[in-house]
Amino acid sequence: MTNALDTMSGTDRPVGSMVASVSRLPARPLTKEKVVIRLLLSVLAVTTVYALAHLDDGGVNLLQAASDTLANLKIIFLHPGGPHLSFLKALYEVVITLGLAFLATLFGAFIALFLGLLGAQNLAPKPVTNVIKAFVAFVRAVPTILWVLIFAVTAGLGATAAVIGMTFHSVSYLTKAYSESFEDLDRSVIEALKASGANWWQIVFQAVIPSSSTYLLSWTFLRFEMNFANAVVMGAAAGASGVGFDLYMASGYYFDLREVGLITYLILAFAIILETIAIRMKNRIKDDQA
Amino acid sequence: MTQISQLPGAPLLEVSHVMKNYDGTRPALDDISFSIGKGEFVAVIGPSGAGKSTLLRCINRMIDVSDGEVRFEGVSVSQLNRRDLKKVRSKIGMIFQHYNLVERLTVIENVLHGRLGSKSTLSGALGRYSRDEKRQAMELISMLGLAEHVYQRCDRLSGGQKQRVGIARALVQDPKVILCDEPIASLDPNASKVIMEQLKRFSNEMHISLIVNLHQVDVALRYSDRILGVNKGRIVFDGRPSELSPERIAEIYGTELSAPRVRYAS
Question: What is the ipTM score, two decimals?
């Protein structure tokens, strides 16, 4: 026992000296990133505390408000249904929303196919790909809703502006996705066909598109799923009709929570269906790469 | 030093004083001249980076020459406009080390790609091939022993099978010349033998000239009618396989130490 204690204290000493030597090591250099992050965190902390202290609650009883919210959520999610909308009518409106998404995806995919070819580095000269990529990055940087509002100036608020705006954003998204799929095809395959006298269009349709068709389909469907979500928002924000508009009316005008619930469930159901298909598509991409 | 071997016909391909500079340092090709007759089987050997691949690609102008001239059937390739260049290219087949097939398409689709150069843009892009073209492709595929794989995707094939698809794609062009860029460098000895023998056979039967870049000197000795030795962008040997002595090989490969050991064919 004492032997063991001895050996323990024996081992203690070198550890202590190690700690001492560690403390003598030079401190890790304070990098620029670290300074920025620390500064940011402290600013955030200060503003949070300040905002909480000066919160204008407008005399709302927070407990009361919380329980009311819960009660509303209960009505929305447990008692869906509505006087204004029958289930079939709501379904019909969802189909309209799907239609908006479909149109935007279709137009977007068609335009993006050609822009994607011009944006692929193995198919187009570098200046051209650079211009396409810069243009597409710019379009993508502006949110969909802004494009819709921009086109609303000429087309008026409604389905037309919504589809054009969503198409715009779809083009930018799909062009990037497509051109990257095209770039996956080895330059040497293109070289082989060129060497046999094939021209650009023949190479594109006989080699490039067949090689990337799985990717193209999958990306397009992913975008369709995104456009569905966008189309719901457009219904409300841009008066593009469809289920989004009904949701807006139900929540903003009729204050009919049961109807909000019905619509939410419908949108959720469709979103889940689309998401499931999209995930399968993604897996197909992965399988193909393996 | 160099000796022009007996040509079986009038020169089909004439390369004269070809230079290629990539970036102004050492030229990749330095004053290359040779001519090739109908049905000749020419092996090009030399160390890595000697300019063998560049030389092949200058012939069908996949790479533009810096100086000099390549004449194919009496026409100067470097003077051609795009359209005529494509016509010339459609008469020159090409086979690659990595086969360069569209892996997701079937064997027959890949073979038919060899016809694109002789078709209109539209029917080529839509993949509309005539009955004759399909029959020809089928024939070549079965001649190359791939009959049971006709409708299989190329990514399911072995390396040797892929290279045979590559050969069929070149042959379906009805080429006068086939350029082979290291056709067996990625294949095992057995598959290599099959490929070389098939190339030799088609060269003989269809009177197609072959220019084959090779790493293996013994393969060059066994199959070719003529060997071009290339080192640092220059032709340092041009003659029959029987004239290629170990000293010559050492000269081609730079030093005696780096010369590969050679098994002599007859």
Answer: 0.85
